């Protein structure tokens, strides 16, 4: 007999720091008062995420409810072109664990659903708000390092020797097992007028 378990986590990367969107204190505390999610590496070179809660989902409704709670807690700000602009990159993690009743061996599969904040061109808008500028720099930096990793993986797939810069940003470290190795990755890009410049 097979035993299945679905586990959910929701990570926000804001200004290169990780925060748990499902932290039970999110509604009562400032983002900066919450414990930061940290990447820890073990002796085998595998990363784990400290301070990122894991929640069991027994059905589709549980999973969607966790997604809704996380989206409600996400960092947003008003910008000149958007009343509620997302100011971070987010990763919704669905982990499926399968185990036979007569063994301790688990088969673990992960699905990372990533919502990337759009690239921002602050100089075009004349924005002088330091907070918005700092957020835009962090957003663009995360996208830049993700692009570098994808380009390096493409070169490696063509047989070229190249270094994969997973460690250059938190997002690429978290997504390491979804970008390289025995995985499938799909990217869907959408651009709206509101996201283009802020």
Describe the structure.
This protein is of the alpha+beta class and 198 residues long. It has helices spanning 60-73, 122-125, 130-157, 170-174, 176-179, 193-197, and strands spanning 2-14, 17-20, 38-41, 47-50, 55-56, 76-79, 82-86, 89-100, 106-115. The strands form 3 sheets. Strands 1, 2, 5, 8 and 9 form a 5-stranded antiparallel β-sheet that branches. Strands 3-4 form a two-stranded antiparallel sheet. Strands 6-7 form a two-stranded antiparallel sheet. Strand 1 and strand 2 form a beta hairpin. Residues 192-198 have low confidence and may be disordered.
CATH class: Alpha Beta
Q: How many distinct folded domains?
A: 1
Rg estimate, integer Å: 18 Å
Low-pLDDT segments, ≥5 res: 192-198
Features of the shown structure:
6 helices, Kinesin, five-stranded antiparallel β-sheet, 198 residues, two-stranded antiparallel ribbon, disordered C terminus, globular, single chain, alpha+beta, 9 strands
